[in-house]
Amino acid sequence: MHANRMWWLPAVAVMLAVAGCGDFGAVEQGIVVGSEGGELTLVLDSNPDGTPRYDRTPAVHVRIPADPDQMGPAPQSGGLIRLDTKNRRVILYSATEDRLLMVKFELLKDARNVYPDDARVARSGAPKVDRATGAVTLYAPRSRELVTIKAPEAVLALPLDAWRAGDVVRYYFKDPGQALRMMNVSQSKIG
Fold it and tell me: Is the domain covering 26-76+166-187 a CATH 2.40.50.320 domain?
């Protein structure tokens, strides 16, 4: 049979697999903005069928899987949601206000295509806030940028964690507050 005429085979395979599964769960993806004990605080993706937009607030609280074999590496939390050097803005999660803050900045230094194991990341001490000069050095692993920005004085008092990128996790659940399986996307090869 010609390959163009077999477009329906994957759909049939999925339907047959689903028919035998019974009670279905759901999958969500989010950035870890907090972690305490066995519970993560996540800002979820509002665009699961396209380019991720981590902007669903209020943040949700999800318990990690009870079975440790159902979870990958423990995720790192942080408030850096998005770095947009083109438009000179950064989106941060404010834990005290449980909302996203859009911060305009002046770009001082920008290094692109910087991977997490690059020596410049370790040498930068990112995130680093210099309150005297208003300079913030941060690393955004999803866009692979190491930048130094001049931020408004009002946000310089944010905790250092607000400038650190949290890991992206994907989790499967039936009860929204309890993950049955969880994958640390940031520390996997499939991001």
Answer: yes
